[in-house]
Amino acid sequence: MFTPIFYDPRQSIVDVQSFSKSAGKPERFVQLMQHYDFRSYGPNYGNKLHPVTAITREDLYRVHDRAFVDGVFAGTELNGFENYDTRVPEACLWIIGSLLVASKHAMANPPTPACSPTSGYHHATHRESGGYCTFNGLMVVAAELIAENSKVKIGILDCDQHFGNGTENILKHYPLLAKRVIHRTAGQYFPGDDSETEALEFQAWLHHSIAEINAFDCDLVLYQAGADAHINDPMGGFLDDAGLALRDRTVFNTIKAPIAWCLAGGYQANKCGSLATDPVLRIHHNTLLESNASLKNRINQGTTA
Ligand SMILES: [Zn+2]
Description:
Blueprint: E1 5-6, H1 25-36, H2 38-41, E2 49-50, H3 57-61, H4 66-74, H5 87-108, E3 114-116, H6 137-148, E4 154-158, H7 165-173, H8 175-178, E5 181-185, H9 195-215, E6 220-224, H10 241-254, E7 259-262, H11 279-293, H12 295-300
Parallel strand pairs: 1-2, 3-7, 4-5, 4-6, 6-7
The chain binds zinc ion.
C-alpha cells in the first residue's frame, strides 16, 4: 500500500538564503521518494504523485491579518525566513494548497493517509511570521474545511520539537474556529533537556493526546511529523531512530480519523550533500514507510472515521 504525495514544483524554492532548508525540501523529498520507489512516484508511472491546486490570498485572510498578508506579498513585511523575498509568499500558495488537497484526499479516501511534503507552518501567528514559518497552513486548511462544512472537526497533532505558538495564537484569535479544532503540540512540554526521561514521557503524552483527539471525533487529523525531534538535531530533539519510528507507528495505527501529514522541521547538516545521505530526508522517508505500513492495520481496525 502506498501513501499518495501531493506535489507541485512551485512548492519549492531552492535558493532562499536561510539556515533552514525547508524552502527547498518538497523537491528534494519527492526526488528521494522517486529514487526509492520510482514505480509509485516516478513521472511516467507515478499514480501516487498527485497534482496540487494553489490556494488564493483570500484563503490566507481567513486566519491572518489582511495588512500583514498583503505586506508579505508586497515585500514590505518580513516572511518566515526573515527576508523580503516575494517568491516565498507565492510559494506558500502552493505549499498550503498541497496540504489542502492532501487533506481533502484523506477525507474522501479513508483510511489511506495522505502526504503533503511541506513545512513551515506552526510559528506563524495571526499577525506575524517567524521561525521559518510565513503563513500558518495548518490553520488555513482547518478554516477552509470548516468554512466549507460548519460541522467538520479538525485535529492538529504537532510533533515538531518546538511549540506551535502560532497555531495557539490563531485559535485564541478566532474562538468560533477554536470550537471545531483540537490542538496538541509536543513542543509545549519537551524542551530536549533530559533526552532519556523525555523520550519516555513523550510516548505517554502521545498516547494521551491521541486518546483526546479520538474522543473529539475528528473528521481529519493534520499530523506534523517534525524531523527536529531527532536526538541529533541541532535545534533540540530527544528521540532516537527507534523513538521516532514508534512515534509515527503510534500515530498512524491509533488515530481513528483520516490523516494528512506534513514534514515540519529538521536541521541536521547533510555532510555528504547527496539526497541519500541527507539525515533529515531519511527521517521523513521513515515516516512515509510507517504511513504505508499502517494501512493494513487501519483497514482492519476500521479507522475510517
Ligand atoms: Zn521545529
